[in-house]
Design brief:
Blueprint (H helix, E strand, L loop, with lengths): L20 H6 L11 E8 L3 E2 L9 E2 L2 E8 L4 H14 L3 E8 L2 E7 L5 E8 L8 E7 L10
Antiparallel strand pairs: 1-4, 2-3, 4-8, 5-6, 6-7, 7-8
């Protein structure tokens, strides 16, 4: 016997990125990859309705995300310097670095009042070798919780 109205996934609520403005605001961060680098992954991901643990009460929107994975682009200090300069030129504020071995962070105030964050991970001794640059903007409404 099936019970009516008992689905495991609640229906999406709200608009996580009205007019795609949040994703559009972080997308230029992908241009911070150094010239000459070999890009192995480049993607933009709109917010998805999700729950990391499958519990109904934790469902919500994931952040808008852009990612670039790359190798090369110069020495570690050249890569970091290039990304720092490029991110500053795109309106990002450098938070600190490295926050952990091979990890640098930025933030950016969004036009709608939200705050985006970005992180560069990689450098010598990181496995697998290479770099990952990721920027995220939280959903405008109903973020996923509990994870």
């Amino acid at each position: 016997m099936a019970l009516a109205g008992c689905s495991g996934t609640p229906s999406p609520v709200g608009d996580p990125d009205p007019g795609h403005r949040r994703l559009d605001a972080i997308h230029p961060a992908l241009s911070a990859v150094p010239p000459g680098a070999h890009v192995t992954l480049k993607q933009s991901v709109a917010p998805q309705w999700d729950s990391c643990d499958g519990i109904t009460s934790t469902y919500g929107w994931d952040p808008a995300t852009v990612d670039a994975d790359f190798t090369g682009g110069g020495t570690a200090s050249q890569v970091v310097a290039h990304v720092q300069t490029a991110m500053r030129g795109l309106g990002w504020t450098f938070d600190q670095g490295p926050i952990a071995q091979g990890s640098w962070a930025w933030h950016k105030k969004l036009a709608d009042g939200g705050q985006a964050s970005a992180q560069l991970i990689g450098g010598p001794g990181v496995e697998p070798p290479g770099w990952s640059l990721q920027a995220t903007a939280p959903p405008a409404s109903h973020p996923s919780t509990g994870c």
